[in-house]
Amino acid sequence: MNKKINYIIEEITDQYFIDDSNRPWIIGFSGGKDSTVLLTLTWLALLKIKNKKGSSFLTREVHVVCNDTLVENPIIINYVNKVLEKIKEASLKHSLPVFVQKTIPRLEDSFFVNLIGKGYPAPNNAFRWCTERLKIKPTAKFVTDIVKSENNDYHEAIILVGTRKSESATRAKSIKKHEIKGKRLTKHPLQNNVFVYSPIKELELEEIWYIINTFQSPWGANNKELFDIYMDASADDYECPTMVSDKEHRSCGQSRFGCWTCTVVKQDKSISAQIEKGQKWLIPLRDLRDWIQEERNKPKNRSHLRRNGVEASIPHGGVVELNHRVEILEKVFEAQKQINDLGYEVELINKQELIAIQVIWYRDLFFEYTVSDIYNKVFNKHLDMKQHNELVKKEEELLLSACEKDKKQFTLIQDLLKLEKSKTIMMKRRGLIEDIEKRYKQYITAQ
């Protein structure tokens, strides 16, 4: 077995020197078993080069990119964040050209901004809007930025992936389809000027675990912690990859490292297994996911119109109604409070997302609910927006005075200002005129 592992390290070393273009390497790192082994063997190859030839020969950059969907299993993301910090520290200590980058979805692409803000129904097999927004686009942008970098003379990059033939018949077929006989590199199916290299594709599952359990982590992490995570999350043996190279890639919900919000699958097996193994504080997340899934298709929760205003193809097949969006947000806050009350510092939805949700509600002419009121109701404390609220109050007093106490005109102008502000914050002014005209019509009709 060691002979096979040494051969892979030799091959990686050879590939590092095989051309003089120094095209950067990008390693998709999820923190799981396969990506951990891939990075371990690559790291050992870099150390071998440094020890034999010296640091001056390490001219090719190696970028370790980890994608955080913002709805990762809390146990997994906490572990991954610790590992990424150790990788950063160790790369500096050993003077290796290894650079760590964490990618996240754009604000307008985040799960809760789409679900609660825009009213997209929870993902399912027929409408799986999450994979591209949360996983593909963030990492694809990072790869594109590397390719277009001024420091990249050839404007190309090589992605190292931890895919293995023995994972499944489908994976083996996919690897065979794209590989070129006698060549280590294959063209990336979705991105130009990007090549794919699969150093560990011939490793079996037993060999993966052998490396994790017998090789010391070169960056100083505790591999036993990774092993224990797999033992606790004893669902199927499929690892959700960081670098998705196929738009038809199946959902990660049945994997050990899927999003806790995933409603594409019937049951989140991994989080259920973790709860059974003693992680009871995850119960609010499991229950919330199940509730979102149960409520998805109830007619009272869905509009007959789609997001673009077009009639849905089936009755009540449109966007999520505002009342239900409010209900979901309240449930998210309640789940977070339950977990926090148990002593775990978990933030299920960040402040930027909350602001974006409020902005979208304004754009959709929903002015009866505010995110801060819902937050205050659950946590019994105000969001940190005191200064903002004081300025708004002064502006409202001046506006009311200018309208000569006419509350209808005051409300109209206030709504129009909110629409303008929402477009500015979201950096999308398209549709502003239509939104203003819509609000004017509502005002005139009410006269």
UniProtKB/TrEMBL annotation:
GO terms for molecular function: transferase activity. It comes from the Bacteria. Residues 27-214 form the Phosphoadenosine phosphosulphate reductase domain. Pfam families: PAPS_reduct (PF01507). Keywords: Transferase. InterPro entries: PAPS_reduct_dom, Rossmann-like_a/b/a_fold, Sulfate_adenylyltrnsfr_sub2, SulphurTrfase_DndC. The keyword Transferase applies. PANTHER family: PHOSPHOADENOSINE PHOSPHOSULFATE REDUCTASE (PTHR43196:SF2), SULFATE ADENYLYLTRANSFERASE SUBUNIT 2 (PTHR43196). This is DNA phosphorothioation system sulfurtransferase DndC. It comes from Apibacter adventoris.
